[in-house]
Amino acid sequence: MVVPFDYINNFLIVEVRLDNFLRMKFLVDTGAQHTLITDKRIAFLLGLEYVREFRIVGADMKRELIARLANGVNIELGDLLVENLPVLVLDEDYYLFDELTGEEIHGIIGGDFLRRFVVEINYFREKLIFHNPTYFKKKNPKYEIHPIVIESHKPYINSDLFLQNMDAPINSKLLLDSGAGVALLLDIESNNKIKIPEIAIPGNIGGGLGGDLIGYLGMTDKLNFGSYDLQNIPTNFQQIESDTIEVNDNNRDGLVGNQILDRFNLIIDYHRDKLYLQPNRRFKKGFRINKSGLSIIASGDNLNKYIVQDVLNKSPAAVAGMLAGDKILSINRIPYYFLSMKRINRILSRKEGRRLNIRVKRKDKKMNFNFQLQNLFQKKSTK
Question: What are the pLDDT digits (tens) for 312-341?
Answer without folding.
Answer: 888 999 999 999 999 999 999 999 999 998
